Amino acid sequence: MEASSLSPVPRPRVWSLVRQRFKESLHDESDLEICMETFSLDILLSQLKSVAKAHRNENSAGKSIPISSKPNSLPRYCRTLLRRYALQLLAPLEEIFSEVQVVLEELIAALPGIHPFEDNIILDERLETTVVDLYTELALFCARAISFIRVRRQHLLPIRQSWPQFSRDFQQSLKRIQMLSQQVERETQRAATTAALKWNNEMITLFQSLNTGHKHPGLEIPCFHVPLTLNDRFYVREGLLDHIADVLNPKVGRSGPRTLALYGIGGAGKTQVALQYTYRTREQYDVVLWISADSTVKMAQDYMAVARRLGVIPATLETQDAFGAMTKVKSWLADTTCSWLLIFDNADNLEVLDYGWPHGVVGSILITTRDFNASLHPASQGIYVNAFDARMGTEALQRLLGPSYDYPNNALLIAEPNKLLGGLPLALSQMSSYVRQQKMALKDFLVLYQNNQDKLHKRRPAAFDYQHTIATLTGNAAVLQRLLAFLDPEAIDEATLYNAASALSNQTQFNDSILMFLPDPIDFEDAKAELLRAALIDRDPRSKSISVHRLVQQATLSGLSPADKARYFDLCSQLLCQAFPSSWTDQEHVWVYHAWEACEKCLRHVMFLAERFAQVEGGLKCLDTFIELLLRCSWYLYEAEYYEESQNLLHVCLQALERKGDTNSSRYAQARNMMGLVQVDLRANTKALQNLKKALEIREGILPPTDWGMGVSISNVGFAYTELGDLTQAMNYLQRSLEFRKAINCRMVDNSYANIASCLLRMGKPNEAEAMYTSVPDVRDLTDEQLLRDNLPRYASGMQLLSMVRQAQGRLDEALDFASKVLQFRRQKFGSRFKTCDSLCHVAKHMLLTKNSMAALQLLDECISIASSLPKADGYLALAYFRKYKIYKAEGHVNAADCLRDAIRAKEATAGRLGSDYDANLADDDEAAYTQLVAWLLW
Q1: Helix (H, G, I), strand (E, B) or coil at 260
Q2: 113 closest CA partner among 55, 67, 73
Q3: In the predicted model, what is the mean pLDDT of residues 399-412?
Q4: How far out from the chain centre does Cα 673 lie?
Q5: Does the pLDDT value for residue 101 go beyond 60?
Q6: Residue 764 in contact with residue 731, Cβ under 8 Å?
Q7: Burial class of residue 531 (count of CB atoms within 10 Å of its CB; 0-12, 13-18, 19+)
Q8: Which positions fall inside the DUF7779 domain (predicted)?
Q9: DSSP line for 608-630
């Protein structure tokens, strides 16, 4: 809009400031008047709000001057300034028109992209300052250009001769304008975010966590979180520690991440070297964090402990959101100015490490691993930790044995054990403990070792180094050592062993007295003390937990007969089944959140025991207990959305049932049914349907015709058909399940109503879907708050369904209201998991439909952050990137192409997992290609 068409208005503050800056730069103020017209503040703000429309409706530089206009660039008043400048230049310069046009094109391309998605942008002090800086620079350049032309306008030749100098001046101005344009864009985005939050009071609550996510007023700094104790007798490799310090120590002027991998064979002392460096340099770091990285579950759990210790999450937080804690810690590491050291121990599987690796950080990261490739990626360099050579081994053994063995007769003998044990530090430590404990002369030990060498070498290579020490154990200490061989080697909670054994001792059917020392505090302490003296275990007094080296576990297992392996496997199954809460049962449909913390304590040990199952050839007397344990744990993992781990345990469960010959039983049906439910959530619908149909077939063959389990299977098959998109078959099964449940008066009839409503919505019948869902007996009389307060995730998912119904009906405000409430519920109950990703994508979509793109971007960024840390969440990663791409494309944002590329990469990763459930014919820029990667509705 031209100024001449308006009544006279006062000059706005922005232009007053620009004029003042202009005067201070000693330019003729008339040049500024030539370049720009008078605008009011209202016009300025109006232009900021309607940039996109202005650019669509207006020619970029007039008919006679074909200057292109960058989409979503500066509004009309700035282009008017450039037109005035162009007219001043072009009048006498017809013969150098092309050079001038290039200058104008580059200048316009440098102008900032103002986001066109806000209804109200507040010109606060920060935004005003950046706008003034930009327009002052632009006005100064235009004035200099006009002065340049004014002096030479009568003679074309001087202009040609001086044009190279003018071009150099222009390039310098262009760089400054580009820098200032970026600042304007950032401040505009910030101002738009503020306006978006004021737009709706409910949205302020919704995004509160986004705006304060990196502010943690309760941080415990300095923080030293290292659950392992340092062995003071362990030999110090000074050269190795100096090398590590040179790479990792924080230094003034050093920027970027500092990463190093310690790699080598098991037992070479990698963990002890990392501990020595950690304890030696703890004063140089504000924060030191130790993470076990041998599985995604353990790594996430350790991140949870770190987050609580550091204060990133409250110690009293109800939700056991390990992956959310991992995301928060990684975000804190990326944002903090503190110096920090992060250690990933036992990172032998580098794929696991990918989920926990912090990106965009400035800190020190140390890895211990057997995989040389870690030194190439993700670490920037590596150090090979070798076994001791003759000199180091001799010195190390002398230190381990202590002064009582430091006499001349031992000078030659002390080098022999190092040679016999291959210089492995852990083996030398165990051997020295054995010699000291037995008060044995070195020459006697060498005779004993050589006499039994053939026997020992026939055992597993990793085990023979520790057999002497283990063989000396008796009584309760020997039992405890064997039990520990079947549990995860880290964080073995003493209270869990104590409580489980106490409960078992009160059961009449349990008659194995071998565990009775565990509930006796004195006997338990004595057993631990003997193992500690022999250096076979370590103990963290703060957490009251035990840890044991993996090679010691292998040595213990190799020394057990098949019958003893079966016996101790059975004992561990009974202990863990006693300790693991029964948070699942086919007869229960309430999700038990209060038991999740207890489940987390046992989880790693159940998974470790499942790995040991293949090593136990037979003779198990408590196989049913083991199967029950796996079913409980698998259901908890499904409930908590650890889908990959749930599938792994279910595979072991099915193997155990097949080994038993029990493939036509209720438990086999339960396992197949559970596997199908996990696969539905992961969008593997074809495989899910096979498992769910098999479960139904078994139940139809063995259960009474009115058993409630029949209704569960019928409904689940219909649910899978809905996700698959075969809606006719889906409706047949779902109607059948509804009739069945009504006939037997089953309390789970609401499940059938809800599934039918979902199917109707997918058929394109939102009104019928609403009528069906609101007829659910347990739902129709409850308010939204009551539904969410009941801690029933399925009811919250029903509210998600209603949100989708409202969207299909065109009632967008109600749809957003429902979806926002579900997001809040899922954040609180699930944390950073799949259902939260699902809600983030849904709410972001509603935000786009209600023209609130800035809020949508925030939600999509949160989804990307979460999905990047979750195994098998690449479908949500792809969808979030694609929706972000659509926003950027509409704005003409330079990062649009990058978002599409990231979306395609994640889509292709998901497609490889989905197989026939993926439609490869959909185009990369079609949203349907990405929505097919995730579940239609996560219940």
Answers
A1: strand
A2: 73
A3: 77
A4: 28
A5: yes
A6: no
A7: buried
A8: 470-563
A9: HHHHHGGG--S--S-HHHHHHHH
Cβ(600)–Cβ(623) under 8 Å? no
CATH architecture of 223-384: 3-Layer(aba) Sandwich (3.40)
* Dihedral angle, C-alpha 160, 162, 168, 173, nearest 10 °: -100
131-171 pLDDT per residue, tens? 778 777 777 777 777 666 666 655 555 666 677 777 777 77
Q: Kind and range of the H or E element at 712?
A: helix 708-724
Question: Can you tell me the distance from the alpha carbon of 29 to that of 19, in angstroms, rounded to the nearest whole number?
Answer: 8
Q: Which of 665, 659, 748 is nearest to 699 (CA)?
A: 665
Is the predicted pLDDT of residue 37 greater than 70, yes or no? no
User: Measured between alpha carbons, how far apart are the two ends of the chain, in Å?
Assistant: 53
Mean residue pLDDT of the chain comes to: 79
Cis preceding-peptide flag for 164 (omega within 30 of 0) = no
> Can you tell me whether residue 70 is helix, strand or coil?
coil
Radius of gyration of the chain (CA): 35
Q: Is 377 helix (H, G, I), strand (E, B) or coil?
A: coil
Q: How many residues does the chain have?
A: 939
More confident of the two residues 283 and 218: 283
How many CA atoms, within 13 angstroms, populate the side-chain half-sphere of residue 132?
A: 19
The answer to whether the beta carbons of residues 785 and 799 sit under 8 Å apart is no
Strand partners, 343: 290, 366
Write down the pLDDT at residue 390. Answer: 82
| Neighbouring residues of 72: CB distance < 8 A, sequence distance ≥ 6 | 51, 52, 55, 113, 114, 115, 116, 891, 892, 893
Which residue from 639, 621, 620, 473 is spatially nearest to 555, judged by alpha carbons? 473
Q: Enumerate long-range contacts of 560-566, CB under 8 Å, 24 or more apart.
A: 560/482, 560/485, 562/616, 562/617, 562/618, 562/619, 563/619, 564/482, 565/615, 565/616, 565/617, 566/616, 566/618, 566/619, 566/620, 566/621
Q: What is the C-alpha to C-alpha distance for residues 469 and 319, in angstroms, rounded to an integer?
A: 43
As given in the structure block, the two tokens for residue 4 are 């001449």
Whose tokens are 């204060």? That residue is: 311
- Round to whole Å and give the CA distance between 833 and 870: 7
Q: Say how far apart CA 115 and CA 241 lie, in whole Å.
A: 52
User: What tokens were used for 796?
Assistant: 């919250």
Quick one: residue 267, left, alpha or beta (phi over 0 = left, psi -120 to 50 = alpha)? left
Report which of residues 811 and 133 the model is more confident about: 811
How many Cβ atoms are within 10 Å of 453's Cβ, its own excluded? Answer: 12
Q: Which residues pair with 259 in a beta bridge?
A: 365
- The rounded Cα 671 to chain-centroid distance in angstroms is 28
User: How many whole angstroms separate alpha carbon 426 and alpha carbon 418?
Assistant: 11
With a cut of 80, say whether residue 762 has pLDDT above it.
yes
3-state SS, residue 367: strand
Q: What pLDDT shows up at residue 153?
A: 55
Contact 129, 91 (CB under 8 A): no
CA distances from 440 to 305, 429, 448 (A): 42, 15, 11
Confidence band (pLDDT; 50, 70, 90) for 567?
very high
Q: DSSP character for 110? A: T
pLDDT over 80 (residue 885): yes
Sign of CA dihedral 656, 558, 428, 268: negative
Topology, domain 784-931: 1.25.40
Bridge partners for 493 per DSSP? 545
| pLDDT score at 448 | 77
What's the rounded Cα separation, in Å, for the pair 709 and 665?
Answer: 13
**3 state SS of 674:** helix
Burial 276-298 (b: 16+ CB within 10 A, else e): bbbbebeeebbbbbbbbbbbbbb
Give, for 510, the enclosing helix (H) or strand (E).
none
Q: Are 29 and 19 in contact (CB under 8 A)?
A: yes
| Contact by Cβ (8 Å): 273, 237 | yes
For the chain, give every domain's residue range: 3-199, 223-384, 404-469, 784-931
**Residue 491 pLDDT class (50, 70, 90 cuts):** confident
Q: Tokens for 364?
A: 């020190």
